[in-house]
Amino acid sequence: MALKLTSPPSVFSQSRRLSSSSLIPIRSKSTFTGFRSRTGVYLSKTTALQSSTKLSVAAESPAATIATDDWGKVSAVLFDMDGVLCNSEDLSRRAAVDVFTEMGVEVTVDDFVPFMGTGEAKFLGGVASVKEVKGFDPDAAKKRFFEIYLDKYAKPESGIGFPGALELVTECKNKGLKVAVASSADRIKVDANLKAAGLSLTMFDAIVSADAFENLKPAPDIFLAAAKILGVPTSECVVIEDALAGVQAAQAANMRCIAVKTTLSEAILKDAGPSMIRDDIGNISINDILTGGSDSTSM
């Protein structure tokens, strides 16, 4: 697996290269906050938002489909955040509507559905493109989105965590599995959502967010990086996702995927080909994760 740093065209000004041999997982008693390299590059909660670099991760081999009748070994679970751990997809769409309303552009929450799970820039920019918004500034829109979302929709301890999320993460850890948050959202939103959901950052062995990546879901980069940080082969990872982009990213990373119907219908999710489908995280059992389940909703 090769990892490289590329410089985006606008707000980022420097360019560095980071090889897989120079990337070392950060290990501490607290939650993972970034990468450290032997060249001194460190992407954390603070510096990732101000970093002059983006990570691009290349897969070692083409994606493969893993059949549930040969589920295989599981060593880690990668949780998406919006729509999986946190009941925040609708809240995000409402905050986005607020942003466009301030710009004088009429949109609905449904306009944002095709762009869910792709990161805030594409989430907002995709609708701006469809609506042909002239002079749209993605950086300014994203900044305003976070201001509205954090102030209005993701207040601390507001109870946006899905029932069963805390219990499943805890059960995974008790079984000796490594657990990570792997989200296309920026770190500022990840931290706010987890806090609002009552999920401690220290529960997770790694938290991987969009800030450091050039390619977001449906590209596999975020999942590949999470697996590398955890020190687990991609074939031993199970992803839990709610968005098409997330399911596609899991497949591209050669990982099994459990999809939840919190955002999209079962028919739409089936077309993406997850390993199995459940109603929400509260309906996922540890048996589903470890053995692939055995009922009719397994794909």
UniProtKB/TrEMBL annotation:
Keyword Metal-binding carried by entry: yes
Keyword Magnesium on entry: yes
Gene Ontology molecular function terms on file: catalytic activity; metal ion binding
Keywords for this protein: Carbohydrate metabolism, Magnesium, Metal-binding
Gene3D superfamilies registered for this protein in UniProt: HAD superfamily/HAD-like, Putative phosphatase, domain 2
Pfam families tied to this protein: HAD_2
Entries under InterPro entries matching the protein: Beta-PGM-like, HAD-like_sf, HAD-SF_hydro_IA, HAD_2, HAD_sf, PGP-like_dom2
Cofactor(s) listed in the protein's UniProt record: Mg(2+)
This protein's name: SOQ1
Gene source species: Arabidopsis thaliana (Mouse-ear cress)
Top-level taxonomy: Eukaryota, Viridiplantae, Streptophyta, Embryophyta, Tracheophyta
